[in-house]
Design goal:
CATH class of chain A: Alpha Beta
Order of helices and strands of chain A: EEEHEEHEHHHEHEHEE
Strand content of chain B: 15-25%
Number of strands of chain B: 12
Distance between the termini of chain A: 25 Å
Number of helices of chain B: 14
CATH topology of chain A: Rossmann fold
Number of domains of chain A: 1
Number of strands of chain A: 10
Shape of chain B: elongated
Oligomer: heterodimer
Structural class of chain B: alpha+beta
Distance between the termini of chain B: 31 Å
Strand order of the largest sheet of chain B: 2-3-10-5-7-6
Radius of gyration of chain A: 17 Å
Number of domains of chain B: 2
Number of helices of chain A: 7
Bound molecules: adenosine-5'-diphosphate, magnesium ion
Chain lengths: ~230, ~400
């Protein structure tokens, strides 16, 4: 079933009078329970595309449909609501709130979703348990390793049962061992029916996915199915 | 929404208490603002109270006829050239006036009073038997002197409560003799305790003598005033009537100006209101100034906070915070700082008011206290709204990229 449809998407920046096409006419369909990797050299538009899909950014032109809803005509409030309910973000730099415990970090999206305290705590601790952090719930980010921080971030991304999880170079700041541990979590999430898109420029990370989309200068130059053996 | 409120409150409390010194310095203007408005209120409440009791001592229903007008800017020689009040006026006013309920001549001077080995200098009053009706103080002990005692020049006296305590302690003074300027007077009454007039000087040390004795002993020199009691609702009519009677007594032609003055306690009220306005005005000015300065300080610190936490704002937006939620978070933070500042100011004001109360009976007014907290929070809203709005309008991508 189709989850996301991008049609003729452009994102154009004007830098010092010069036009920069971060996305240059992108067409893309993503189905439920896909596991897709976006690859490409630095500056090719990977992050821009992720932000677009994640409703953090809006296109200069083009059509974007998410679960049949037209995202390109939504206002700030509607976009915030979609991000809150339907999308889970995982960033390269974790982006946890430094003063909050792991549990509280995971709880925050639920606060914005106006879910009651007890239910919130239950959901947040379940999410932390599912990423193997049951004994780190009350630690602050600076008391956790990089891999553990990224697992908190994943727990935060999936706590709202989103339709899609977006991860922009989630292993970029991790050593390869922690990186592969993180990828195993994504693998499991995918097996459980989640839709996952991740950005990476490492081939052995991209191999975890089922589909690889390659970008160059804001254009999709290759879209291939990964054959696993 | 309740969840968000608690979340915001928690964030605010953490932010405020994580950096106590910074918060305190930021809030100094608000603290001073609240302190000045509440202390001003305390001061005025104290003034009101002592004014109220002092005024009741003077009596709202009494006209004071004398040579000079209270609080006027008349030259002293002009006053001095006016004819004196005379005790004959008392009977004339009584005969002619339909409003006068009691008329008393009052003469006043200082004298030295002694009993056994105790001695003091204080005010003595010479008056007639109707005097008690023109003041609103009652007798604590004994009785006032009678008309015949006044006519006979009897040497009897009614003393103030303070004088009684100083001379007799807890003994009964009635029937005892004290000396006024070395002449023996028999104590026949004691006035009840009155406290200080306008918080300034005590009226509890006076001694009251019949005018007959007063005149014989202290001569007729010195100036006299007349106290005329009228029904309280008829004070204006009484004022007009007594003016007419006095002009008649003095034989003034319609074209001539009055050479006497009739004073009412209202004159005190007007004067007092002027004073209150001056204190209030100064207080409000200081308050306004400190609140403005404090508000600007808070606005500044909030801009810094928003800048420092740009990335956090980006993260919060990425996980679903709406603009309104971000706005309320930062607004709450500004209001929280101001609320605690107000509370600190109020606490300081309360402590200081306890000290003030030692010298000058007064209380911190509750309404004003609540109002000052409300105003502090209002300042928080006003000074926080622009930084909070700026935070809410940040582009999530730019905010996430911010280093
Ligand atoms: N806010 C911006 N202003 C101007 N140019 C931008 C902005 N964001 C991205 N770009 C440009 O868009 C292109 C794509 O950027 P990005 O999507 O971050 O690439 P990638 O993530 O693939 O490295 C780059 O050339 C970048 O310089
Ligand atoms: Mg990138």
């Amino acid at each position: 079933m189709k989850l996301i449809g991008l049609k003729d998407i452009y994102k154009i920046y004007n830098v010092g009078g010069e036009e920069v096409r971060a996305l240059d006419g992108v067409d893309l369909k993503i189905n439920n329970n896909e596991y897709m990797a976006i690859m490409g050299p630095s500056g090719s538009g990977k992050s821009t595309m992720m932000n677009m899909i994640g409703c953090l950014d809006s296109p200069s032109s083009g059509l974007y449909e998410f679960e049949g809803e037209k995202v390109h005509i939504m206002d700030d409030g509607q976009l915030a609501s979609i991000r809150n309910r339907k999308i889970g973000f995982v960033f390269q730099t974790f982006n946890l709130l430094p003063k909050a415990s792991a549990l509280h970090n995971v709880e925050i999206p639920l606060v914005y979703a106006n879910i009651k305290k007890e239910k919130r705590l239950k959901m947040a601790s379940d999410a932390l348990i599912s990423v193997g952090l049951e004994d780190r719930m009350h630690h602050r980010p600076n008391e956790l390793s990089g891999g553990q921080r990224q697992r908190v971030a994943i727990a935060r991304a999936l706590v709202n049962n989103p339709s899609i999880i977006l991860a922009d170079e989630p292993t970029g700041n991790l050593d390869s061992k922690s990186g592969h541990e993180i990828m195993k979590i994504f693998d499991e999430l995918h097996r459980n029916g989640n839709t996952i898109i991740l950005v990476t420029h490492e081939d052995d990370i991209a191999k975890y996915s089922n589909r690889i989309v390659r970008l160059l200068d804001g254009k999709i130059v290759k879209d291939e199915i990964v054959v696993k053996n | 929404m309740i969840s968000l409120f608690y979340e915001n409150l928690k964030i605010s409390l953490v932010a405020v208490f994580a950096n106590k010194t910074k918060s305190l310095l930021t809030a100094l203007g608000i603290i001073i603002g609240v302190l000045s408005v509440t202390l001003m209120g305390t001061l005025i409440s104290g003034l009101d109270r002592s004014f109220e009791s002092s005024m009741s001592w003077l009596g709202k229903d009494v006209l004071y006829v004398s040579r000079y007008e209270w609080f006027s800017d008349m030259e002293w020689w002009e006053v001095k050239n006016r004819p004196r009040m005379r005790s004959e006026y008392v009977d004339k006013i009584k005969n002619l006036s339909k409003y006068a309920l009691a008329v008393s001549p009052v003469m006043q001077r200082t004298a030295s009073l002694s009993y056994a080995d105790k001695e003091t200098r204080t005010e003595i009053f010479g008056t007639n038997e109707e005097y008690m009706e023109t003041i609103s103080t009652d007798l604590d002990l004994g009785r006032f002197f009678s008309l015949s005692e006044d006519r006979n020049g009897s040497r009897v006296t009614i003393i103030g409560y303070g004088l009684k305590e100083a001379f007799f302690g807890s003994d009964n003074p009635i029937g005892k003799y004290i000396k006024i300027d070395n002449i023996k007077f028999r104590v026949i009454g004691v006035l009840e305790k009155q406290g200080k007039f306008l918080g300034l000087f005590s009226v509890d040390n006076q001694a009251i003598l019949p005018l007959g004795a007063y005149n014989r002993i202290f001569s007729k020199r010195g100036w006299m005033r007349l106290s005329v009691k009228v029904p309280e609702q008829k004070i204006e009519d009484g004022h007009d009537e007594i003016t007419g009677i006095m002009r008649q007594i003095r034989g003034l032609k319609p074209s001539e100006k009055s050479d006497f003055a009739i004073n009412k306690t209202k004159a005190f009220e007007a004067q007092y209101n002027k004073l209150k306005l001056a204190i209030g005005g100064t207080g409000y000015f200081i308050t306004l100034l400190s609140l403005i300065v404090g508000g600007i300080g808070i606005m500044n610190i909030m801009f810094v906070t928003v800048k420092e936490r740009t990335r956090e704002i980006g993260v919060r937006k990425a996980i679903g915070a709406t603009n309104g939620m971000i706005l309320s978070q930062f607004l709450m933070e500004a209001v929280t700082i101001c609320f605690f500042a107000g509370l600190i100011g109020l606490l300081l004001a309360y402590i200081i008011s306890l000290f003030i109360n030692q010298v000058f009976p007064s209380t911190l007014p509750l309404g004003l206290s609540l109002f000052s907290i409300f105003i502090s929070m209002l300042v928080g809203i006003l000074s926080g709204i622009i930084p909070a709005y700026k935070a809410s309008k940040l582009d999530p991508i730019d905010a996430l990229r911010y280093e």
